[in-house]
Design a protein that fits this description.
Length: about 375
């Protein structure tokens, strides 16, 4: 099988019925995958290094025992939405939940994107924004960030004036650069864009500010700014697949139009709602990660790498004495997995390391020091 073109090919397969071609506009897409290599120290997908609190695991086990599994879940995810709304001081009608924030982004693009429409984004940034846009047949207008990865407001104005995007994406803190856009920069972009401004805050709890505050301060901003968050990182729940957005009720209704019926299962709804009872434990995890982030940043400062300030749970760095691919392989040989970003737009030679437990970070730093010796 030719996996890219989706066609049956070759020898013995020829007698089999021919399958339809995959949509031609999808053939060039490569998908978004991080290597799942069996190593001791996995620092490649920005997960939390710690499991959720034991109290949460026990509360979830109890709650799961009471589920009527023969019944569909609450289609509206009423309790979960209410709890999230309370935690952010917004109305329950301003919250939409889905299976991970990627599905939230997909719902936004299904509702607002499509043929004849475009989105804007500023690279380097999270590649799935462009990827999901293309999958939904939406054109992508990509502008550059500055060399230090900060937003270039002139470039933003140029791109949005030209493309008139229905959605403009920011990722703050930005994956994979780690940099958070300032509230002033986000407000300035919100004033420039013609449609909705989507601020992906997958790493929001690691940063000093949130676009949720901007929404709170001004009704016009609240109407046009959409904030997307996830339980995969801070909340140590990547396995549960839960993300959400906070937006104007009209945007929530648009996402509900395109979400499949009962898309969010009962276990996931319970997992999210119960997690919110453990905010102190989750904040302790964020504090540990922030401390370790500082320690890694200081250690990288002593090595022959270029590195950038991070407001997230990962750091981007560029070895200056060796090729990124060789360093990545050396790290894997030392059973440490990081993300090779060297072929992403604007990131030649760059690797990204997720902050792990102190002993995992020690293993990473020792292996990197050895590779760069
Ligand atoms: N947005 C950003 C910026 C991310 O880095 C990720 C995770 N890689 C996601 C969204 C998706 O996270 P999830 O679907 O697990 O919520």
């Amino acid at each position: 099988m030719d996996a890219v073109a989706g066609r049956a090919t070759g020898g013995d397969d020829d007698a089999r019925p021919t399958l339809p071609d995959v949509r031609p506009d999808l053939v060039a897409l490569e998908g978004y995958h991080s290597a799942q290599v069996d190593v001791d120290v996995r620092l490649n997908t920005n997960e939390s290094p710690l499991p959720p609190p034991v109290g949460w695991q026990e509360a979830l086990a109890d709650a799961v025992a009471g589920i009527a599994f023969n019944r569909y879940p609450d289609r509206e995810a009423t309790e979960l939405k209410r709890a999230l709304a309370t935690s952010h001081g917004v109305g329950a009608d301003e919250v939409f939940c889905a299976n991970g924030s990627n599905e939230v982004l997909q719902c936004l693009l299904l509702a607002y994107g499509g043929p004849g429409r475009s989105v804007a984004l500023f690279e380097p940034t999270y590649t799935l924004h462009g990827q999901i846009a293309r999958v939904t047949g939406t054109a992508v207008a990509a502008g550059p960030r500055r060399a230090d990865f900060s937003l270039d407001l002139d470039a933003v104005a140029r791109v949005v004036d030209g493309a008139r995007p229905v959605l403009t994406f920011l990722c703050s803190p930005n994956n994979p650069t780690g940099r958070a856009d300032t509230p002033e920069e986000i407000a300035a972009v919100a004033a420039l864009v013609p449609g909705l401004l989507v601020v992906d805050e997958a790493y929001g709890q690691f940063a000093p500010a949130s676009a949720l505050d901007l929404r709170r301060d001004d009704p016009d901003t609240a109407r046009r700014v959409v904030v997307v968050r996830t339980f995969s990182k801070t909340w140590s729940m990547a396995a549960a697949r839960l993300g959400y957005l906070v937006a104007d009720p009209e945007v929530v209704r648009a996402c509900e139009l395109v979400a499949l019926p009962y898309h969010l299962d009962t276990v996931t709804q319970l997992a999210g709602r119960l997690a919110l009872d453990f905010a102190d434990e989750m904040n302790a995890r964020v504090a540990l990660v922030a401390e370790e982030r500082g320690r890694i940043a200081a250690a990288l400062g002593e090595l022959p790498v270029e590195t950038w300030r991070s407001d997230a749970n990962f750091l981007l760095f560029r070895p200056t004495v060796r090729e990124a691919a060789g360093v990545w392989t050396d790290l894997v040989s030392a059973s440490v997995l990081v993300r090779d970003c060297s072929r992403w737009p604007g990131l030649a030679g760059c690797l990204r390391v997720t902050v792990g437990l102190p002993e995992e970070n020690d293993r990473f730093l020792a292996a990197l020091t050895e590779s760069l010796r």
